[in-house]
């Protein structure tokens, strides 16, 4: 198993600005996230929640400022090696079964094979594992996409609107999963416009009205 | 490395499943040859002379129409995000996608080519050179095509643009490919050199296309 | 030295007086070049009067190659050093180069009919120049399609740099392959073989094309920089920048 020291990771953003499509979307963003902490990022649609998460994941370049991991040995460590982004798109191939989809992601993430079953169980997909992904409902697809969090073994989870399309039971399961992840020393940032409530989580608002 | 193998293997599986592209690629190729043959007419001598150029042109066209499969679906469903997040080198992902495209789009053509060559009355001694030139040359079409697909990633009306961009870059492959196939058929001394030049084009594309394609994807994903 | 002119406003100001100067030079050079080419140079002993097409055709072909090299070079500079004027220069060069290439192709065709007996031949030189023309069009098409300027600049730069592999093919095609087209007679190892009396009109015309390119380049770059400034102001007016604060 991974040692808690290596797994524990926090995050610090200093005066970060991010542009997309030639326009500055976010500016002067400063944030800190401690290990074991969950941060809810709230804000209206189009406010820049996805942009913030993708920049943290390393999928978008930062215009100004810096994003650094804390508690990860040295601050200069590659964020991509520690963060996993689960976005609106589930990255599922409809022609493959659920298990085949997971097996593909496991290979990309260099995860052990055993973790596939662990991930299926964690999101209550074991009974659907041999179904083609095309036959899943929208909520089931969402859960299948979220298995990548468990598969990746990464300490920093970046969840973009994970509550979309899933029912109350699955949502409770997901928040439980996030809580367990943070108890192990991980951290999570969840972008949501309203539905998720985590009593233990801190919340921030993203939007034009929140500029410094 | 195992991630790259997984990308190629997954694309091959997807192409072979129902609704996949492998059969479509071969069908489009056959249709293109058929249209040429109908336009040329039934004269067997003319057909025999045109067999190699027609098969090469059809191979080029069917590669062109299948280019959107290389990155577009992975871009839309988020798979490309996962590949970018996990890959050590995006250049190698581009190379893997080009290899997968060759296996799923070009290899079916090479398998179908002898049958179509038969319909075009290609003389017997022409089969070896034709298949060899296709085998050496079509990887260049997939590699340059992957660059074109990367350049037009996520764009509306990408189909016309990718043809305009890739078309001129396909010229050397077509010229040397047809040159080698014809020289081999006629037993001309330029057969060997043409094959070598064709191989050089493929190697050059293998070196350049992943570099340029990865750069293009990075700019297009922002 | 380079970064000193990187400021677009400063560049636009400095470039302005060069435009009429280059324009005037180009008119003078065209007058002299065309006078020599049409009236004050000998007819060729083989080709007769049609040789005069050369004075329009050959410098156009030189410019076709020169402009592509300039475009690819500027693209590489923009790509590597992010110099703000490099992409502007490359973008402005493309249509000018495409017109020179078209001119070389059309005049070549007009010359080919009396000399070779055909308007067009699919030989290495002609084909590679035609490909050059399509590379220009592909480069322009990227700029036309991609709306966001920074992204268009990077993608177009990749296209220009990759397409540059065609340049040596164009230049050496007459040496590498048997071609209807005659080999180089001016820029060749061992000195020019073209007759002395044909050199003045050829060089007057070449410099006329060069100054025309210079003038058009500066006009086009200033227009592009002005358009960018306008777009930036419009963006600033409508931009909604988000920040983050605790709930």
From TrEMBL, chain A:
Q: Which Pfam families match?
A: ABC_tran (PF00005)
GO biological process: what's one of them?
cytochrome complex assembly
- SUPFAM superfamilies hit by this protein: P-loop containing nucleoside triphosphate hydrolases
Q: Which InterPro entries match?
A: AAA+_ATPase, ABC_transporter-like_ATP-bd, ABC_transptr_haem_export_CcmA, P-loop_NTPase
Question: Keywords, A to Z?
Answer: ATP-binding, Cytochrome c-type biogenesis, Membrane, Nucleotide-binding, Translocase, Transport
Looking at the record's lineage, which domain of life comes first?
Bacteria
SMART domains cross-referenced by the UniProt entry: AAA
Report the GO molecular function annotations: ATP binding; ATP hydrolysis activity; transmembrane transporter activity
Which positions carry the signal peptide feature in this UniProt record?
Answer: none
Residues annotated as domain ABC transporter: 11-208
Q: What is this protein called?
A: Heme exporter protein A
Q: Lineage in the entry?
A: Bacteria, Pseudomonadati, Pseudomonadota, Alphaproteobacteria, Parvularculales
TrEMBL record, chain B:
Q: What does the entry give for GO biological process?
A: cytochrome c biosynthetic process; cytochrome complex assembly
Q: How does it sit in the membrane?
A: Multi-pass membrane protein
Q: Which Gene Ontology terms cover its molecular function?
A: heme transmembrane transporter activity
GO CC annotations on file: plasma membrane
Which InterPro entries is this protein grouped with?
A: Cyt_c_biogenesis_CcmB, Cyt_c_CcmB_bac
Which Pfam family is one of this chain's hits?
Answer: CcmB
Q: Does the keyword Transmembrane apply?
A: yes
User: Where in the cell?
Assistant: Cell inner membrane
* Record key words, sorted: Cell inner membrane, Cell membrane, Cytochrome c-type biogenesis, Membrane, Transmembrane, Transmembrane helix, Transport
Give the transmembrane region(s): 12-38, 50-71, 92-119, 131-153, 160-183, 195-217
Positions the record marks as coiled coil are: none
Family, according to the entry, reads as follows:
Belongs to the CcmB/CycW/HelB family.
In terms of PANTHER family, this protein maps to: CYTOCHROME C BIOGENESIS B-RELATED, HEME EXPORTER PROTEIN B
Entries under NCBIfam families matching the protein: ccmB
Q: What does this protein do?
A: Required for the export of heme to the periplasm for the biogenesis of c-type cytochromes.
Query: What is the protein name given in its UniProt record?
Result: Heme exporter protein B
From TrEMBL, chain C:
Cellular compartments annotated: Cell inner membrane; Membrane
Molecular-function GO terms, alphabetical: heme binding; heme transmembrane transporter activity
Q: Does the keyword Membrane apply?
A: yes
Q: Give the CC-aspect GO terms.
A: plasma membrane
Q: Domain Cytochrome c assembly protein, which positions?
A: 24-181
Leader peptide range in chain numbering = none
- Keywords, comma-separated and alphabetical: Cell inner membrane, Cell membrane, Cytochrome c-type biogenesis, Membrane, Transmembrane, Transmembrane helix, Transport
Q: How does it sit in the membrane?
A: Multi-pass membrane protein
Instruction: Please provide the Gene Ontology terms (biological process) for this protein.
Output: cytochrome complex assembly
- Where, by residue number, does the polypeptide cross the bilayer? 18-39, 59-81, 93-112, 124-143, 155-174, 202-219
InterPro entries named among the record's database cross-references: Cyt_c_assembly, Cyt_c_biogenesis_CcmC, Cyt_c_biogenesis_CcsA/CcmC
Primary localisation category: membrane
The lineage's top-level taxon is Bacteria
Q: Which PANTHER family match?
A: CYTOCHROME B_B6 PROTEIN-RELATED, HEME EXPORTER PROTEIN C
Stated family: Belongs to the CcmC/CycZ/HelC family.
Q: What does the record give as the function of this protein?
A: Required for the export of heme to the periplasm for the biogenesis of c-type cytochromes.
Its protein name is: Heme exporter protein C
According to its UniProt entry, this protein's organism is: Amphiplicatus metriothermophilus
